[in-house]
Amino acid sequence: MKTSLDHLPVSKQLELERIVEILFAEFEAALPKASSKVRKTGRILKIILFGSFARGGWVDDRVSGYKSDYDLLIIVNARDLADPCHWEAAEDRLLFDPQIKHDVQLVIEPLERVNDLLAKGQYFFTDIKKEGVALYERKGHKLAEPKSLDQAEHIRISQKYFETVLPYAQGFIKSAQLHIREKDTNHAAFLLHQITEHTYRALLLTLTHYSPAIHNIRTLRGLAEDLDPRLIDAWPRYHRADRRKFELLRRAYVEARYSEHYEITVEELEWLEARVRVLQDVVETVCKERLDGI
């Protein structure tokens, strides 16, 4: 696997150094929350940069406000350590650290699962092994050689995901509209979150056969937009008010159900519903194009 970051400006290389520093610091702080066995033996085995910054095609568009994310695959040595709860503090620090100018999206998986998926020819991890840049690697923990997936099998798997996951996401929309009309704002926000999450899952699974087991739609959005830039336009982000609405949607998975302090207006929900519809249309177009072109 590649290890050089020479294709990136020095400022970006320094940002990535800072990101790795934070990840290790917060990993050590989170270990006491793990099981006793994992607490003693838990390790980060690899940190791999993938996506646009690894390929050299990142975007920093001041006109639209869109900036590419840093996409990182963190490989750990125990399944328990892949639980998102162990990485929440790290994600918060990465979001607010003044030295880091781009959002950071984390995909965390145990080595055993990554190697199992590589051995099955899973596209997502095969591409990472081919295009990714290792920011950290612990000696003695190799990635498996990817299997070449049969084309007919690839088509069958992609078609199955497209025909099941996207309709599931689309099925929530009428319920969300009903709750918006009835001013049941928290329930509507949760449903719009679910539509967004599963719409992104549909795209990721159709195109790569993989979607991380998370509910963080900011991470899912970043992974999806890296696959096709047409998805970027679904969420305007030049104005702070628009970015705030997406953040309200991201928080809805937990806070709309459990926090008495969560507040969202009908007008904000109507805006979010319109953007979700745009997202679904673009995802359907991208998936159909990919399936037709296979």
Give a verbal description of the structure.
With 294 residues, the protein is α+β, with helices and mostly antiparallel strands. The chain has two domains: 10-137, 2-Layer Sandwich (GMP Synthetase, Chain A, domain 3), CATH 3.30.300; 151-293, Four Helix Bundle (Hemerythrin (Met), subunit A). 57% of the residues lie in helices and 9% in strands. The chain has twelve helices and four strands, in the order ααβαβαβααβαααααα. Strands 3-2-1-4 form a four-stranded mixed β-sheet, sandwiched between helices. β2 (70-76), α4 (88-96) and β3 (104-110) form a beta-alpha-beta unit. α1 runs antiparallel to α4 (88-96), α7 (151-170) runs antiparallel to α9 and α9 (185-208) runs parallel beside α10 (217-227). The mean pLDDT is 94.
Outline the secondary-structure elements.
Blueprint lengths: L9 H21 L5 H6 L2 E7 L1 H4 L14 E7 L11 H9 L7 E7 H9 L3 H9 L1 E5 L13 H20 L2 H9 L3 H24 L8 H11 L12 H19 L7 H28 L1
Parallel strand pairs: 2-3
Antiparallel strand pairs: 1-2, 1-4
Helix pairs in contact: 1-4, 7-9, 7-12, 8-9, 8-12, 9-10, 9-11, 9-12
Write out key terms for the chains shown.
2 domains; globular; Four Helix Bundle (Hemerythrin (Met), subunit A); 4 strands; 57% helix; single chain; 9% strand; GMP Synthetase, Chain A, domain 3; 294 residues; four-stranded mixed β-sheet; alpha+beta
In short, what is this structure?
This protein is of the alpha+beta class. Helix content is 57%, strand content 9%.
Strand content: 5-15%
Low-confidence stretches: none
In DSSP terms, counting alpha (H) and pi (I) runs of 4 or more, how many helices?
A: 12
The shape is: globular
